[in-house]
Protein backbone atom coordinates (compact mmCIF):
# COMPACT_ATOMS: atom_id res chain seq x y z
CA UNK A 1 0.00 0.00 0.00
CA UNK A 2 1.43 3.36 -1.04
CA UNK A 3 2.63 5.76 1.62
CA UNK A 4 1.34 9.24 0.74
CA UNK A 5 3.70 12.08 1.60
CA UNK A 6 2.83 15.61 2.68
CA UNK A 7 4.48 17.07 -0.43
CA UNK A 8 2.58 14.66 -2.66
CA UNK A 9 -0.90 15.44 -1.31
CA UNK A 10 -0.11 19.16 -1.39
CA UNK A 11 0.64 18.82 -5.10
CA UNK A 12 -2.64 16.91 -5.60
CA UNK A 13 -4.71 19.65 -3.97
CA UNK A 14 -3.00 22.45 -5.88
CA UNK A 15 -3.90 20.91 -9.25
CA UNK A 16 -7.29 21.01 -10.96
CA UNK A 17 -9.64 18.10 -10.26
CA UNK A 18 -8.69 15.88 -13.20
CA UNK A 19 -5.00 16.61 -12.95
CA UNK A 20 -5.11 16.04 -9.18
CA UNK A 21 -6.86 12.68 -9.61
CA UNK A 22 -4.27 11.46 -12.08
CA UNK A 23 -1.41 12.64 -9.87
CA UNK A 24 -3.00 10.84 -6.89
CA UNK A 25 -3.22 7.67 -8.98
CA UNK A 26 0.52 7.86 -9.60
CA UNK A 27 1.21 8.45 -5.89
CA UNK A 28 -0.89 5.40 -4.98
CA UNK A 29 1.14 3.32 -7.41
CA UNK A 30 -1.80 2.42 -9.62
CA UNK A 31 -1.34 1.74 -13.30
CA UNK A 32 -3.23 3.85 -15.81
CA UNK A 33 -6.68 2.39 -16.50
CA UNK A 34 -9.76 3.07 -18.61
CA UNK A 35 -12.12 5.01 -16.34
CA UNK A 36 -15.15 4.15 -18.48
CA UNK A 37 -14.65 0.38 -18.51
CA UNK A 38 -13.11 -0.04 -15.05
CA UNK A 39 -15.72 1.82 -12.98
CA UNK A 40 -14.73 0.11 -9.74
CA UNK A 41 -11.20 1.51 -9.84
CA UNK A 42 -12.58 4.89 -10.86
CA UNK A 43 -14.85 4.98 -7.79
CA UNK A 44 -11.96 4.03 -5.48
CA UNK A 45 -9.87 6.85 -6.92
CA UNK A 46 -12.72 9.34 -6.45
CA UNK A 47 -13.20 8.29 -2.82
CA UNK A 48 -9.50 8.80 -2.01
CA UNK A 49 -9.41 12.12 -3.81
CA UNK A 50 -12.52 13.44 -2.01
CA UNK A 51 -11.03 12.52 1.38
CA UNK A 52 -7.91 14.56 0.58
CA UNK A 53 -10.05 17.53 -0.50
CA UNK A 54 -12.07 17.32 2.73
CA UNK A 55 -8.97 17.20 4.93
CA UNK A 56 -7.41 20.16 3.11
CA UNK A 57 -10.62 22.20 3.41
CA UNK A 58 -10.67 21.52 7.17
CA UNK A 59 -7.28 23.19 7.43
CA UNK A 60 -5.41 20.09 8.57
CA UNK A 61 -1.64 20.14 8.19
CA UNK A 62 -0.34 18.39 5.08
CA UNK A 63 1.00 15.35 7.00
CA UNK A 64 -2.49 14.89 8.50
CA UNK A 65 -4.07 15.25 5.04
CA UNK A 66 -1.78 12.49 3.77
CA UNK A 67 -2.78 10.26 6.71
CA UNK A 68 -6.47 10.81 5.97
CA UNK A 69 -5.87 9.63 2.39
CA UNK A 70 -3.94 6.61 3.62
CA UNK A 71 -6.70 5.83 6.15
CA UNK A 72 -9.34 5.97 3.41
CA UNK A 73 -7.48 3.48 1.26
CA UNK A 74 -6.92 1.15 4.20
CA UNK A 75 -10.59 1.21 5.18
CA UNK A 76 -11.68 0.31 1.67
CA UNK A 77 -9.24 -2.60 1.63
CA UNK A 78 -9.46 -3.92 5.24
CA UNK A 79 -13.27 -3.88 5.59
CA UNK A 80 -14.08 -6.11 2.63
CA UNK A 81 -16.76 -8.75 3.40
CA UNK A 82 -17.01 -7.61 7.05
CA UNK A 83 -20.25 -6.65 8.84
CA UNK A 84 -20.77 -2.98 9.57
CA UNK A 85 -20.03 -3.45 13.28
CA UNK A 86 -16.59 -4.79 12.44
CA UNK A 87 -16.01 -1.89 10.05
CA UNK A 88 -16.84 0.61 12.85
CA UNK A 89 -14.33 -1.08 15.14
CA UNK A 90 -11.65 -0.92 12.43
CA UNK A 91 -12.34 2.80 11.95
CA UNK A 92 -12.18 3.53 15.70
CA UNK A 93 -8.94 1.60 16.08
CA UNK A 94 -7.29 3.45 13.22
CA UNK A 95 -8.39 6.86 14.53
CA UNK A 96 -7.09 6.09 18.05
CA UNK A 97 -3.70 5.30 16.52
CA UNK A 98 -3.72 8.29 14.14
CA UNK A 99 -0.03 9.10 13.62
CA UNK A 100 -0.45 12.90 13.51
CA UNK A 101 -1.56 14.67 16.66
CA UNK A 102 -4.68 16.73 16.04
CA UNK A 103 -6.91 18.89 18.24
CA UNK A 104 -10.02 17.04 19.47
CA UNK A 105 -12.31 19.16 17.27
CA UNK A 106 -10.29 18.32 14.14
CA UNK A 107 -10.21 14.62 15.03
CA UNK A 108 -13.99 14.67 15.58
CA UNK A 109 -14.40 16.32 12.14
CA UNK A 110 -12.43 13.44 10.57
CA UNK A 111 -14.58 10.91 12.46
CA UNK A 112 -17.79 12.63 11.33
CA UNK A 113 -16.56 12.62 7.74
CA UNK A 114 -15.98 8.86 7.69
CA UNK A 115 -19.24 8.25 9.57
CA UNK A 116 -21.31 10.34 7.11
CA UNK A 117 -19.66 8.84 4.03
CA UNK A 118 -18.10 5.42 4.59
CA UNK A 119 -20.24 4.09 7.49
CA UNK A 120 -23.53 5.67 6.40
CA UNK A 121 -23.25 4.12 2.93
CA UNK A 122 -21.28 1.07 3.97
CA UNK A 123 -23.44 -1.52 2.19
CA UNK A 124 -23.38 0.54 -0.98
CA UNK A 125 -19.58 0.60 -0.81
CA UNK A 126 -19.57 -3.16 -0.28
CA UNK A 127 -21.93 -3.77 -3.19
CA UNK A 128 -19.95 -1.60 -5.60
CA UNK A 129 -16.38 -2.36 -4.56
CA UNK A 130 -16.57 -5.98 -3.42
CA UNK A 131 -19.36 -7.81 -5.21
CA UNK A 132 -18.57 -8.98 -8.72
CA UNK A 133 -21.08 -7.91 -11.33
CA UNK A 134 -22.05 -9.24 -14.73
CA UNK A 135 -20.78 -6.88 -17.36
CA UNK A 136 -22.76 -6.18 -20.48
CA UNK A 137 -20.94 -3.28 -22.03
CA UNK A 138 -20.90 -2.19 -25.62
CA UNK A 139 -18.60 0.46 -26.99
CA UNK A 140 -18.72 2.11 -30.37
CA UNK A 141 -16.53 4.73 -31.96
CA UNK A 142 -18.32 7.64 -33.55
CA UNK A 143 -16.40 10.09 -35.68
CA UNK A 144 -17.78 13.58 -35.32
CA UNK A 145 -16.98 15.96 -38.16
CA UNK A 146 -17.14 19.61 -37.32
CA UNK A 147 -19.04 21.83 -39.74
CA UNK A 148 -16.90 23.80 -42.19
CA UNK A 149 -15.83 27.30 -41.28
CA UNK A 150 -18.41 29.70 -42.71
CA UNK A 151 -17.28 32.46 -45.04
CA UNK A 152 -17.53 36.10 -43.98
CA UNK A 153 -20.99 37.61 -44.38
CA UNK A 154 -19.63 40.18 -46.83
CA UNK A 155 -18.81 37.31 -49.23
CA UNK A 156 -22.31 35.82 -48.94
CA UNK A 157 -24.89 35.71 -51.72
CA UNK A 158 -28.61 36.35 -51.45
CA UNK A 159 -30.62 33.10 -51.67
CA UNK A 160 -32.59 33.94 -54.81
CA UNK A 161 -29.46 35.17 -56.57
CA UNK A 162 -27.62 31.97 -55.58
CA UNK A 163 -30.44 29.82 -57.00
CA UNK A 164 -30.37 31.92 -60.17
CA UNK A 165 -26.62 31.38 -60.54
CA UNK A 166 -27.02 27.64 -59.94
CA UNK A 167 -29.65 27.40 -62.70
CA UNK A 168 -27.39 29.23 -65.15
CA UNK A 169 -24.46 26.99 -64.24
CA UNK A 170 -26.59 23.85 -64.66
CA UNK A 171 -27.75 24.95 -68.12
CA UNK A 172 -24.17 25.76 -69.17
CA UNK A 173 -22.96 22.38 -67.89
CA UNK A 174 -25.77 20.57 -69.75
CA UNK A 175 -24.91 22.42 -72.95
CA UNK A 176 -21.24 21.50 -72.64
CA UNK A 177 -22.18 17.89 -71.94
CA UNK A 178 -24.31 17.77 -75.11
CA UNK A 179 -21.43 19.12 -77.23
CA UNK A 180 -18.99 16.58 -75.77
CA UNK A 181 -21.43 13.72 -76.34
CA UNK A 182 -21.96 14.81 -79.96
CA UNK A 183 -18.21 14.77 -80.62
CA UNK A 184 -17.84 11.32 -79.05
CA UNK A 185 -20.67 9.85 -81.15
CA UNK A 186 -19.18 11.38 -84.30
CA UNK A 187 -15.77 9.85 -83.55
CA UNK A 188 -17.35 6.47 -82.78
CA UNK A 189 -19.35 6.37 -86.04
CA UNK A 190 -16.34 7.48 -88.06
CA UNK A 191 -14.23 4.71 -86.52
CA UNK A 192 -16.93 2.14 -87.35
CA UNK A 193 -17.04 3.42 -90.93
CA UNK A 194 -13.26 3.21 -91.29
CA UNK A 195 -13.26 -0.28 -89.84
CA UNK A 196 -15.93 -1.42 -92.32
CA UNK A 197 -14.08 0.12 -95.28
CA UNK A 198 -10.85 -1.59 -94.25
CA UNK A 199 -12.60 -4.97 -94.03
CA UNK A 200 -14.07 -4.46 -97.54
CA UNK A 201 -10.66 -3.44 -98.87
CA UNK A 202 -9.02 -6.51 -97.33
CA UNK A 203 -11.60 -8.85 -98.84
CA UNK A 204 -11.15 -7.23 -102.28
CA UNK A 205 -7.34 -7.44 -102.21
CA UNK A 206 -7.44 -11.00 -100.90
CA UNK A 207 -9.76 -12.36 -103.58
CA UNK A 208 -8.87 -10.13 -106.51
CA UNK A 209 -8.24 -13.07 -108.87
CA UNK A 210 -11.55 -14.77 -108.06
CA UNK A 211 -13.88 -11.75 -107.90
CA UNK A 212 -16.04 -11.14 -110.89
CA UNK A 213 -17.43 -7.87 -112.03
CA UNK A 214 -20.77 -8.47 -110.33
CA UNK A 215 -19.23 -9.40 -106.97
CA UNK A 216 -16.90 -6.42 -107.09
CA UNK A 217 -19.81 -4.12 -107.92
CA UNK A 218 -21.78 -5.57 -105.00
CA UNK A 219 -18.87 -4.93 -102.59
CA UNK A 220 -18.49 -1.36 -103.76
CA UNK A 221 -22.22 -0.78 -103.34
CA UNK A 222 -22.08 -2.18 -99.82
CA UNK A 223 -19.19 0.10 -98.97
CA UNK A 224 -20.97 3.14 -100.36
CA UNK A 225 -24.17 2.18 -98.56
CA UNK A 226 -22.36 1.74 -95.26
CA UNK A 227 -20.61 5.07 -95.68
CA UNK A 228 -23.88 6.83 -96.51
CA UNK A 229 -25.57 5.20 -93.48
CA UNK A 230 -22.72 6.30 -91.25
CA UNK A 231 -22.96 9.87 -92.53
CA UNK A 232 -26.73 9.74 -92.06
CA UNK A 233 -26.35 8.63 -88.45
CA UNK A 234 -23.78 11.34 -87.81
CA UNK A 235 -25.97 14.07 -89.31
CA UNK A 236 -29.08 12.85 -87.53
CA UNK A 237 -27.31 12.77 -84.19
CA UNK A 238 -25.80 16.23 -84.74
CA UNK A 239 -29.15 17.70 -85.78
CA UNK A 240 -30.87 16.23 -82.69
CA UNK A 241 -28.10 17.37 -80.37
CA UNK A 242 -28.01 20.83 -81.95
CA UNK A 243 -31.76 21.14 -81.41
CA UNK A 244 -31.34 20.19 -77.73
CA UNK A 245 -28.49 22.70 -77.37
CA UNK A 246 -30.71 25.42 -78.87
CA UNK A 247 -33.42 24.56 -76.34
CA UNK A 248 -30.89 24.97 -73.53
CA UNK A 249 -29.74 28.28 -75.00
CA UNK A 250 -33.34 29.51 -75.09
CA UNK A 251 -33.82 28.58 -71.44
CA UNK A 252 -30.57 30.31 -70.55
CA UNK A 253 -31.62 33.42 -72.50
CA UNK A 254 -34.97 33.50 -70.70
CA UNK A 255 -33.17 33.37 -67.36
CA UNK A 256 -30.81 36.16 -68.37
CA UNK A 257 -33.75 38.34 -69.36
CA UNK A 258 -35.45 37.79 -65.97
CA UNK A 259 -32.79 38.12 -63.26
CA UNK A 260 -33.86 38.11 -59.60
CA UNK A 261 -34.47 41.47 -57.93
CA UNK A 262 -31.44 43.10 -56.35
CA UNK A 263 -31.38 43.08 -52.54
CA UNK A 264 -31.40 45.57 -50.93
CA UNK A 265 -33.39 47.48 -53.60
CA UNK A 266 -31.62 50.53 -55.05
CA UNK A 267 -32.75 53.97 -53.84
CA UNK A 268 -35.07 56.06 -56.00
CA UNK A 269 -33.32 58.19 -58.61
CA UNK A 270 -33.05 61.88 -57.86
CA UNK A 271 -35.26 62.74 -60.85
CA UNK A 272 -38.15 60.64 -59.53
CA UNK A 273 -37.90 62.19 -56.09
CA UNK A 274 -37.93 65.67 -57.68
CA UNK A 275 -40.96 64.84 -59.82
CA UNK A 276 -42.93 63.66 -56.81
CA UNK A 277 -42.10 66.75 -54.79
CA UNK A 278 -43.04 68.95 -57.75
CA UNK A 279 -46.42 67.23 -58.06
CA UNK A 280 -47.09 67.78 -54.37
CA UNK A 281 -46.21 71.46 -54.69
CA UNK A 282 -48.48 71.84 -57.70
CA UNK A 283 -51.40 70.22 -55.89
CA UNK A 284 -50.89 72.50 -52.86
CA UNK A 285 -50.76 75.54 -55.15
CA UNK A 286 -54.03 74.54 -56.81
CA UNK A 287 -55.70 74.14 -53.41
CA UNK A 288 -54.53 77.60 -52.29
CA UNK A 289 -55.74 79.22 -55.54
CA UNK A 290 -59.14 77.57 -55.11
CA UNK A 291 -59.43 78.90 -51.55
CA UNK A 292 -58.56 82.45 -52.68
CA UNK A 293 -61.15 82.36 -55.47
CA UNK A 294 -63.83 81.24 -52.99
CA UNK A 295 -62.94 84.14 -50.64
CA UNK A 296 -63.23 86.65 -53.48
CA UNK A 297 -66.67 85.34 -54.50
CA UNK A 298 -67.91 85.66 -50.92
CA UNK A 299 -66.75 89.32 -50.72
CA UNK A 300 -68.61 90.18 -53.95
* Uncertain residue ranges: 270-274
Cα Rg? 48 Å
Major β-sheet profile:
none
**β-sheet strand percentage:** under 5%
**What structural class results from the helix and strand content?**
mainly alpha
Distance between the termini: 126 Å
Mean pLDDT: 81
Number of contiguous helices: 10
Q: Based on DSSP secondary structure assignment, what is the total number of beta strands?
A: 0
Approximate helicity band? over 70%
How many domain units? Answer: 2
Order of helices and strands: HHHHHHHHHH
Gross geometry: elongated
Task: List the topology elements.
Elements: H1 6-14, H2 17-28, H3 39-57, H4 62-78, H5 84-96, H6 104-119, H7 122-129, H8 159-206, H9 213-257, H10 270-299
Helix pairs in contact: 1-2, 1-4, 2-3, 3-4, 5-6, 8-9
Main traits of this protein?
single chain, about 70% helix, mainly alpha, about 300 residues, 10 helices, 2 domains, elongated
Written overview of the protein:
With 300 residues, this protein is mostly helical. The protein folds into two domains: 124 residues, no CATH class; 107 residues. It is 72% helix and 0% strand. The termini are far apart.
Compact description:
Helix content is 72%, strand content 0%. By secondary structure, the chain is mainly α.
